[in-house]
Specification:
Length: 244
């Protein structure tokens, strides 16, 4: 039953057991070669392993089989972190078209516009992402992910003080979430505080956040320029791997 292999692969992927996940997904490909999500997940594994050309092919295969928002978003993200912003933009546009109420899709498109120098389009997307995140906060004012999203988009739109305020609120709700730690690092970097950002980033990496993303994120350029970035970040990532 291919679905059992798929679910086992998803479980292994969430636990960071990439080799086991890949083996299960390859069994799914053998049994059900038209299952789009399997190729999307294989692409995610290749991305984790810095096998970028292979991950792009897998995301493209997923889109070919079933053009859904998640696959477009993943392909756009891969292009984005490779610095291919003009290629990322149409992928994120399509993801937002298919999922118009997704604040992450709007924020990703804002990021691509900003890095491509399309400032006004970027600001419009960040405002849309903020509005969508606020809708989530109307349902649950203590939604840490939504609070951090609001803060991240405010900071990327130039209001780093408000960005820091919302990320701090998110961290107060959930101090152990490494994604929120990473958001704090990004906001600190955008505010011109790279040393402070590195401290937050070290905490995120020590809790298992992706070092590869930190090395590729354009918003952390000032942090990567610090002389102690590589040693400090690698030490934190190694500690996280040992605990895992």
């Amino acid at each position: 039953y291919w679905s059992n292999h798929y679910q086992l692969g998803v479980a292994c992927l969430r636990l960071g057991r990439n080799n086991e996940a890949l083996a299960e997904f390859q069994k799914v490909v053998d049994l059900n070669p038209s299952h789009a999500s399997t190729y999307n997940n294989i692409g995610a594994i290749y991305e984790r392993e810095s096998r970028f050309d292979e991950s792009i092919r897998m995301f493209q295969k997923a889109i070919q089989l079933q053009p859904y928002a998640g696959a477009y978003s993943n392909l756009g993200t891969e292009y984005f972190f490779l610095g291919r912003y003009q290629d990322a933009i149409p992928m994120f546009e399509k993801a937002l078209e298919l999922s118009p109420n997704d604040e992450v899709a709007a924020g990703n498109l804002g990021d691509a516009y900003r890095q491509a120098g399309q400032t006004e389009k970027a600001r419009a997307m960040y405002q849309r992402a903020i509005e969508l995140a606020f809708k989530a906060l109307e349902v649950n004012p203590q939604n840490a992910s939504a609070l951090a999203s609001v803060g991240r988009y405010y900071a990327k739109d130039g209001d780093t003080a408000k960005g820091a305020e919302y990320v701090a609120r998110a961290r107060a709700v959930n101090s152990a979430d490494n994604e929120l730690m990473y958001d704090e690092a990004v906001v600190d970097a955008l505010a011109g505080h790279p040393e402070q950002a590195l401290t937050a980033l070290e905490a995120a990496l020590a809790s298992g956040y992706s070092l590869e993303e930190a090395r590729r994120d354009p918003d952390l350029k000032s942090v990567r320029a610090l002389p102690n970035f590589e040693a400090a970040s690698k030490k934190a990532a190694d500690e996280a791997a040992q605990r895992h």
